[in-house]
Amino acid sequence: MTALAPVLAVWLAALLAAGAPDEADRIRRGDRRAFRRFFDATHGDLLRALARRGLDPATADDLAQQAYVWIWEHRDRIDPARSLRGLLFRIGLTRGLNAVRDAARTGPLLDAELRAAEPGDPAALADLRLALAQAVAELPERRRQTFTLCFFDGLTHREAADVMGVSPKTVEHQMGHALKAVRERLGRFLGP
After folding, report:
1. Do residues 17 and 83 make contact, with C-beta atoms less than 8 angstroms apart?
2. Neighbour count for residue 96 (Cβ, 10 Å)
3. Are the CB atoms for 91 and 67 separated by under 8 Å?
4. Can you give 74-89 as a three-state secondary structure string?
5. Are 78 and 71 in contact (CB under 8 A)?
6. Can you give the pLDDT at residue 160?
7. What is the pLDDT of residue 72?
8. Rounded to an integer, what distance in angstroms lies between the CA atom of residue 21 and that of residue 26?
9. Per-residue DSSP letters for the chain?
10. Mean pLDDT per segment of 10 residues, for the chain of length 192 residues?
11. What distance lies between CA 46 and its chain's CA centroid?
């Protein structure tokens, strides 16, 4: 047991450094090296946590990168008294849950894309993509912005609300209307 003490001490020091208040304060002030140390100390753990949620490695990596980008872009909001590692995992895992949820919600759109993209029929896929772009372009400005942030950019309703300066309920309401309009415009692709 005594032989493990030095290994445990190093592991504990690395774990504490990954979310230490001093490190969080440095990141909040824009210290790129502190952010890199935080990234190196937490990236593997975040990827493993996302993979345990059933996400494929490429999606897990994309979601992890989005979480780090969000932290860097919103570093002025970091509370050094709170766990930066906890914030990172909350952002990453929330995005992971949203990805799973969105995959279930957009299943009909993806099924339509697959039906339209019969092998050797790239024109049908191009038609679907054009119809989707037109449907989104025809949405009123606020709905188009909401749909783009949530559907294409993968933001949660709360994150989209922060970006737009509105309440999450407003985003939810706008997203519901946007999805309905897009589904109606893509009806011919969705089939029976």
Report:
1. no
2. 24
3. yes
4. CHHHCCCCCCHHHHHH
5. yes
6. 81
7. 93
8. 9
9. -TTHHHHHHHHHHHHHHHS-HHHHHHHHTT-HHHHHHHHHHHHHHHHHHHHHTT--HHHHHHHHHHHHHHHHHTGGG--TTS-HHHHHHHHHHHHHHHHHHHHHHSHHHHHHHHHHT-TT-HHHHHHHHHHHHHHHHTS-HHHHHHHIIIIIS---HHHHHHHHTS-HHHHHHHHHHHHHHHHHHTHHHH--
10. 51 47 86 94 89 83 91 88 84 80 57 51 72 87 86 78 86 90 80 58
11. 13
Q: b vs e for 56-87, b when ≥16 Cβ sit within 10 Å of the residue's Cβ? A: eeebbbbbbebbbebbeeebeebeeeeebbeb
Residue in this structure with the two tokens 């339209």, named with its chain if needed? 116
Query: What's residue 104's pLDDT?
Result: 58
